[in-house]
Design brief:
The structure holds two protein chains of two kinds.
Chain A: H1 2-13, H2 18-54, H3 58-61, H4 76-83, H5 89-121, H6 124-135, H7 139-151, H8 158-183, H9 186-194, H10 199-210, H11 212-228, H12 231-236, H13 244-254, H14 259-280, H15 284-288
Chain B: H1 2-12, H2 29-39, H3 41-44, H4 47-67, E1 70-71, E2 81-82, H5 86-93, H6 98-127, H7 134-146, H8 149-160, H9 166-173, H10 188-213, H11 218-225, H12 230-258, H13 262-267, H14 279-288, H15 293-321
Helix pairs in contact in B: 6-10, 6-12, 6-14, 7-10, 10-12, 12-15, 14-15
The chains are: A mainly alpha, B mainly alpha.
């Protein structure tokens, strides 16, 4: 805003001739785009480095000075990831998907009615309680859950992981959906109520279908958060339900020198997230601030 | 029909208590229960979430408080033993790793969040105009904060490598002295802060951009008529009006930075020589490496109160800023 008004004010003040002014604007434009590029490079470089290293041989990945462009690309790192029997990458992927999908589904099941309730009946206390879950350190849930799940012999099972990831997914879903439900036109719900539909019928048949876009967005975000979760999975999994982040973390331990292999694993975990993000761009900041901000 | 509907409506809003309903043939308790549910949707809708909250939040908090006054090494043979305040006294007065981890937590948070805020707001001010590729940049800026932290941390670990890492290569090209990064006790926290800054500066930028787009235009008109310089417009107009937005962004970042776990655990696991052991990492070590579950629980209570305290403090600041 300030920059726009400033640049609009300047041409009126100066008395240069038309072509020279145009040249000045062009230079300014070029400088601006250079600045944008300088800002973007560090953010993009880390992704570039991850992807480029994942296609390097062991020798190329460990060469110094580092090879930025010229090397013979190889798919060896990816092939090794999927063919190493001691490190079943596909199983870990499946575990990550089951746990993320399960905790997202349960998050919707438990979270949607609560979000609706907070939006309709102004239950700010409940909203605050769910926000507390967002503020509390994850480890303060983890120690008690670990003790209880150990006693119940539920360590390294899907139910215990899905339940623990619910602590991550449910608050995101609730906080995003409160906003969506608040923006829903009341008239349609009221019309349904006049026609004799119960409150719960109205919620199920009118409000939920109308907020489909919001539900999809919050589900995708919840899925990403569960997919990315490291701490809960690190403690609660061992061999059977190990998720991708834990697997890759362990993987680093015994191949700490092979940058190519590490990069390939990192790229494979990140890729689905990047693809999913493209669908929910507008809601991410909102989801990350737990609904504290709209924008 | 019409009156019946109206009664339904008002009961739904909670005006009529179930007892005040018109008397007819006595319904069964079950159907009365169902009628009650139908009339109090505000009580019914939250039930599933409240059950989850009780199980996953309230129970852990209560259980942590209980464990924090026990001594227990997670052994089936030795049950937890009540020792009163001894855990608390121990970590507050005798544990040589505790207080350093607290200061490191604050140091890391302060370093990361301060730089993120300055950079994030500055970048937002630069991006705050219409230009080709703005939408694309917004998308790109989402990537660092949603990319799997473990994966990102692994890539950064290779970048920080003192011998082969690309960061030292760049420093060499610029004729700057190279740094041992995560192997150097003085540099390990700044190095981790760099990762956090890389991940979360876009967050501040995007929130600030949203805030900028919702600023009123009248003050700018007035400033233009008064002939105010761009610098004055920025410092006397834009930044003060942005303050509530920035405070909210800082609030969320500070709460999360205090709890940073993934990148530290992956890149250093608290090293070099404990010099990146923050409170979260130290608690984690106590709980899941040494299995001092009682002791870890007492530190958890402290950690929890610290995060809550900072949150409340920042909320106060936020209210004052608005």
């Amino acid at each position: 805003m300030s920059a726009a008004t400033a640049s609009a004010a300047r041409p009126a003040a100066t008395t240069t001739t038309q072509p020279r002014r145009r040249m000045g604007n062009l230079v300014k434009q070029i400088l601006f785009y250079l600045l944008v590029l300088v800002i973007l490079v560090p953010f993009l470089f880390v992704f570039y480095w991850m992807i480029i290293n994942s296609f390097k041989t062991l020798v190329d990945a460990q060469s110094y000075p580092p090879k930025f462009f010229s090397f013979t690309p190889t798919l060896e790192n990816y092939r090794a990831l999927f063919q190493d029997p001691s490190n079943p990458f596909l199983d870990f992927t499946l575990n990550s998907m089951i746990i993320a999908a399960g905790s997202t589904f349960l998050g919707l099941l438990f979270g949607l009615p609560a979000a609706y309730s907070i939006a309709r009946y102004k239950q700010n206390g409940l909203g605050l309680a769910i926000l507390t879950a967002r503020i509390m350190p994850g480890i303060s849930f983890l120690v008690p859950l670990y003790i209880v799940f150990s006693r119940l012999r539920m360590i390294d099972t899907y139910p215990s992981l899905i339940l623990s990831h619910l602590i991550v997914t449910m608050p995101i879903i609730v906080w995003l959906m409160v906003g969506f439900f608040e923006d829903l036109p009341r008239e349609l719900e009221e019309a349904a109520r006049v026609d004799g539909t119960s409150v719960f019928g109205t919620f199920w048949r009118i409000s939920l279908p109308l907020s489909k876009a919001g539900i999809v967005a919050s589900a995708i975000l919840a899925f990403i958060f569960s997919w990315n979760n490291f701490m809960f999975s690190l403690v609660l999994t061992s061999t059977n339900t190990k998720t991708l982040p834990v697997a890759v973390f362990n993987f680093m331990g015994y191949s700490s020198i092979n940058y190519g292999a590490i990069s390939a694993a990192a790229a494979l975990i990140t890729l689905p997230v990047i693809v999913l993000v493209l669908f929910v761009q507008r809601h991410i900041v909102q989801g990350l601030t737990a609904g504290g901000i709209k924008g | 029909m019409a009156t019946g509907e109206r009664r339904r409506e008002s009961a739904g809003a909670g005006v009529l208590s179930p007892a005040a309903r018109p008397s007819g043939p006595q319904p069964s308790p079950w159907s009365r229960f169902l009628t009650y549910l139908e009339h109090r949707p505000d009580r019914v809708f939250p039930i599933p979430a409240v059950i989850v909250l009780l199980l996953t939040m309230l129970f852990p908090v209560v259980y942590t408080l209980y464990m924090s006054v026990q001594q227990w090494e997670f052994s089936a043979l030795d049950p937890p033993k009540f020792i009163g305040w001894r855990n608390y006294v121990n970590f507050l007065t005798q544990d040589s790793r505790f207080w350093p981890s607290v200061w490191r937590t604050f140091y890391f948070t302060f370093l990361a969040v301060t730089i993120e805020t300055v950079l994030g707001v500055a970048i937002a001010l630069i991006f705050n105009r219409e230009f080709l590729g703005k939408g694309l940049i917004r998308t790109i800026f989402l990537f660092p904060m949603v990319a799997t932290p473990v994966a990102i941390a692994l890539v950064w670990a290779t970048i920080f490598d003192p011998n082969l890492g690309v960061l030292n290569y760049f420093l060499e090209q610029l004729n700057l002295p190279i740094v041992l990064w995560t192997s150097d006790a003085r540099w390990v926290l700044p190095a981790l802060a760099i990762v956090d800054i890389w991940e979360w500066t876009p967050f501040i930028t995007l929130i600030t951009l949203a805030g900028l787009s919702s600023l009123p235009s009248e003050p700018y008109e007035a400033a233009r008529i008064d002939g105010a310089s761009p610098t004055r417009v920025l410092f006397d107009l834009t930044l003060p009006m942005l303050r509530p937005t920035i405070v909210v962004a800082v609030l969320f970042r500070a709460i999360d930075a205090l709890k940073t776990f993934d990148i530290i655990q992956v890149i250093t696991q608290g090293g070099a020589d404990y010099s990146s052991e923050t409170l979260n990492i130290y608690t984690f070590q106590n709980a899941f490496n040494y299995y001092h579950l009682g002791y870890a629980s007492s530190i958890l209570v402290f950690f929890f109160m610290l995060v809550m305290g900072v949150s409340i403090l920042l909320l106060r600041v936020r209210r004052a800023a608005e």
